Amino acid sequence: MAIVSDHIIDSVRDAVNIVDVISRYVSLKKSGRNYMGLCPFHKEKTPSFSVHPVKQIYKCFGCGAGGNVFSFLMEHEHISFIDAVKRLAEETGTELELQEKSPEVESENERLFQANETAQSFFQRQLRENKNVLEYLKKRGVTEKSIERFKLGFAPDAWDGLLKHIQHFKYPIETFAKLGLILKREKVDDPTRREEGHYDRFRNRLMFPIHNTSGKVVGFGGRDLSGKEDTPKYINSPESPIYQKSYILYGLYFAKEAIGKLRTAIFVEGYMDWLQLFQNGIENVVATSGTSLTEDHARVIRRYTSDICVCYDSDTAGIGAAVRGGEILFQNNLEVKVLLLPEGQDPDSYVAENGAEKFLELVKKAEDYFTFRLNQVENKFDLQKALERSQAVSEILEALAPLRDNIKTNLYMERIAEKWNTPSTLLYNELQKKISAQRRRRRVDDNDAEVAVPVEAPLTFIGAWSAEKDILILLMNHYSDIHEFVFEHLEGEDFLNPEFRQVLAIIQETAKRSAKNLHQAVLDKIESKQLRDVFAKDLFRDFKEPARYLQDCIRKIKIAKYQFHIDEQGKKIRELSPEDHFPILQEIKRFQEELKKWQSVKMK
Question: Rounded to a whole number, what is the largest CA-CA distance in the chain?
Fold first, then answer.
């Protein structure tokens, strides 16, 4: 596993401005010496996301997210630290020097990515060895070039195909289980089945690797090849630490260059739809892959273009998907058009039968989303009936209410008033009611979201944990001025919390190389997001009388340490017979003397 040397990481970090990078994703406004904006990691109406241009860090005081430019890209783009460094290195023209990384220091995400690569290679080999599936793909018009380029594979028709492969090479099953590739067998009453062990999730399926925008495999989609009516046609990998479905658009990794060049993106539903279009030269295409479009998807695609064409089947399900998906994109201020293909056709079959040029001619004729939605509402309701006209107005205004563009809103309202012969003042009054109702719902949702923010297993601290943390903050910000004094009085074993003890070791090791921008380098090396957030928040603090506060922190840490040891020895003595008490009592006495000394000490 390759890593980037520390001096290259420093060079990349120094070459970018965190304000410029975050401004690509968040609208920032100057507020005092910092910049503020709406947090991209949780829903909020009042900006609580702060970027510190001098320290080159960010912190959300709503959800707690924080870090530096690398951790921002890692969390926002769902990529690894190395990928974040590589991306910024490309932008700054910094040449990367790669070193080999030992397995012991691989992060959990890297192990998951490697497990997916292992599975992908297994599925690829199974496909190459299966003539029936290769013939199936040939009949569907999938070329050998596409099979190879997009790493298509085959999950064998067995309960333990991948499982045996994993066991043969002694890979940890737990890693594959975390990705949902391997499932644990539940106990059943059927005596013909084993009641323990594991089995494959994907069986007898054509496999489509799902990539993030950096090209790493985060999951799989599997198309059933059995033809059984009771078997789902498609199943996908479940969400995992590296696969959040609301952030992934299938094929975006391969399509982003064409989307950026053509300034437009075509949305289709299925893997085969995407594959057929792409291999026929229509490369500005992404697929939703059976996942409902979300606001996160809208934010992801907006980085590349604001011009979208939604192309779904013309059946009831396809129209419904176009209504729902198009609405999400439309409400996020994207220019959306809708293309419904002739009855009985999907993008895959239409391009296979008619070619790319005919398909692109239809794309040019696609109607804008608002016109499409008006027509759908008109077909749904009888506007000559008062009740149904009221319902139609309510539905179309519900779609307009979240729109945050007054010019567009006024244009659409005029169209409704003219087409449905309805007074514009009445429409505006109803729209305001919708906007107010949605704001009330958002307030409730925001409160719920704050309670339900997904987090890692909570960090629990003991002793003078706040003093331990603040000593580390002071070291990061003022290392050259205070490190001799700190290390004269404190060492690693004085820290009762292993998390802070580890950060102290990182600070000491990093400072040997350079104390410049120490807080940045330390944040890079803290793997736990929760722990990184703890420090990012307090790096914004300005301590009053830092010298006096530093001494007070040392005193608190020492007192907590000796009190902890006294309590621990007290527990031991209760478990021993009286004849074994003496050495323990001697230890307690020594700790009590140290405790008393530190309780009475007055540091200058």
Answer: 99
**Distance (Å, whole) CA 87 – CA 83:** 6
Q: Which residues contact 581 (CB under 8 A, 6 or more apart)?
A: 573
For the chain, the C-alpha Rg in angstroms (whole number) is: 30
Q: CATH number of the domain at 247-375, please?
A: 3.40.1360.10
| Contact indicator for 242, 236 with CB cutoff of 8 Å | no
Q: How far apart are CA 169 and CA 458, in angstroms?
A: 34
Of 41, 33, 77, 83, residue with least CA distance to 59: 41
Name the residue among 273, 268, 262, 272 with its Cα closest to residue 293.
268
User: In CATH, what class is 108-243?
Assistant: alpha beta
3 state SS of 210: strand
What residue spans define the domains of the chain?
A: 2-105, 108-243, 247-375, 381-451, 465-600
- CB of 64 within 8 A of CB of 537? yes
Cα–Cα dist 49/154, whole Å: 45
pLDDT bracket for residue 348 (50, 70, 90): very high
**Distance, CA of 547 to CA of 482 (rounded, Å):** 9
Q: Which residues does residue 171 pair with via DSSP β-bridges, in sequence order?
A: none
Give yes or no for residue 456 having a pLDDT over 80: no
- The residue length of the chain stands at 604
What confidence category does residue 103 fall into, taking pLDDT thresholds of 50, 70 and 90? very low
3.40.710.10, 2.60.40.10, 3.40.1410.10, 3.90.580.10: CATH of 2-105: 3.90.580.10
Distances (CA, A) of 145 to 25, 118, 142, 278, 484: 35, 21, 8, 12, 63
Which residues are CB-neighbours of 391 under 8 A, at least 6 positions away?
Answer: 381
What's the CA gap between 22 and 77, in Å, rounded?
12
DSSP conformation letters of 423-450: -HHHHHHHHHHHHHHHHHHHHHHHHHHH
Task: Report the relative pairing of strands 2-4 and 265-268 from DSSP bridges.
Answer: unpaired
The torsion angle over the Cα atoms of residues 576, 581, 585 and 588, rounded to 10 degrees, is: -10
Q: Are 198 and 163 in contact (CB under 8 A)?
A: yes
Q: Which segment of 62-66, 266-270, 375-379, 600-604 scores lowest on mean pLDDT?
A: 600-604
CATH of domain 465-600: 1.10.860
CA 44 to chain centre: 18
Reported pTM: 0.61
Distance CA 126, CA 207 (A): 10
